[in-house]
Design brief:
2 domains; two-stranded antiparallel ribbon; 2 helices; Translation Initiation Factor Eif1; 5-stranded mixed beta sheet; alpha+beta; elongated; 7 strands
């Protein structure tokens, strides 16, 4: 038999998402704050991918040495710059379409060293 400890409340209509560890609303939660995602060698790797995406091209950016919140904001700014959609998954920014030249110039202005990988 499952108890409330086995399946904690994760959403409430009054407060929204709830942290399963401390029981507070996610905006007030401090237990799940991740350590900054600052890793790698400082080189941003950019690649255009098509495989597994239904024939659609997606430009991926990995190795950006930023903490999660800063990375999320950078992804938003890059999507706006390209005028397209995208997402952030596991520290990798995905921008819909082939925008390698625009992204390379934009990241270069921001002081990042960009390396094109793949085809």
């Amino acid at each position: 038999m499952k108890t409330s400890k086995d399946s904690p409340t994760v959403y409430s209509t009054g407060t929204g998402r709830i942290c399963p560890e401390c029981g507070r609303p996610v905006k007030e939660c401090h237990c799940r704050k991740e350590a900054p995602r600052i890793a790698g060698d400082g080189i941003v790797r950019m690649q255009a991918e098509v495989a597994g995406r239904g024939g659609k091209t997606v430009t991926t950016l990995s190795g950006i040495p930023l903490a999660d919140e800063e990375l999320r904001q950078l992804a938003t700014e890059l999507k706006r710059r390209c005028g397209t959609g995208g997402t952030l998954k596991n520290g990798v920014i995905e921008i819909q379409g082939d925008h390698r030249t625009v992204l390379e110039a934009e990241l270069g202005k921001r002081g990042y060293k960009v390396k094109r990988v793949g085809g």
